[in-house]
Amino acid sequence: MATPARYRMEELSWDEYKRRIEAGAILFLPCGALEQHGYHLPLGTDVTIPLCLALRLAPQVNGIVAPPLSYGYKSQPLSGGGQHFPGTTSLDGQTLTWLTRDVLKEFMRHGATRIVLLQGHMENTFFLIEGIDLARRESAAYTGKILLIEWWQLLSSPTLDQVFDQNFPGWELEHAALVETALMMYFRPELVQTEKITAEKVEHPLPYHLFPYPPDMVTPSGSLSPAHRASREKGEALVEEIVAAALAILQREFGEDTAS
Ligand SMILES: [Zn+2]
Prior knowledge:
It contains 8 helices and 6 strands. It is α/β, with parallel strands linked by helices. The protein has one domain: Creatininase (Rossmann fold), CATH 3.40.50. Strand 5, helix 5 and strand 6 form a beta-alpha-beta unit.
């Protein structure tokens, strides 16, 4: 029986990993969070989605998926519900920056020249960018390319109009809502408790940050917009669009030979 192909870094031996990296493998680093996602989605939603996307992409581009960064930057009230929910377990920005920098410096030392951070938790973005910047500054001889992709940026306006029936609330209030629920229904349906979906939403989001923020600013469940119109079919269509857009980016940035 042929050995099935392996794409997860932690399942490879060091010499297999070395050979694949030297052959130009794309190294994916999924970045997420451990954060409340309403009553109906698991705490690991933000890391599950980029990990599943990376595992979809890797076989198509001679990729390797590194163990994800499963903790993220602090949950903000109007993009993740805030820090007061049990289970939400966050890093200081400096810790995430250094974690990112340290892991990237190791990938650079291994000779990885095509690195993709696939990001699933909005609050992480600038700390990941800072980690990338510090790693590059400290590795002046490095000639490879690093991409940071936020999966939600790959969905087109026509798709969002269709999925939301022209009522897209904006990505920040989409927390634990329609899109994340649909993606989880597609990738990990056994983890979605559809009977616990609420109709709650943030009615009047403040157009500024406030410390401390009023506890009633966020819904009791932690979902910031309703998820009841999510479906596995919508999830599948969204995944198809994200994967196609990501493949086009990888080909544009890394060249034709990315296709395996
Ligand atoms: Zn999320």
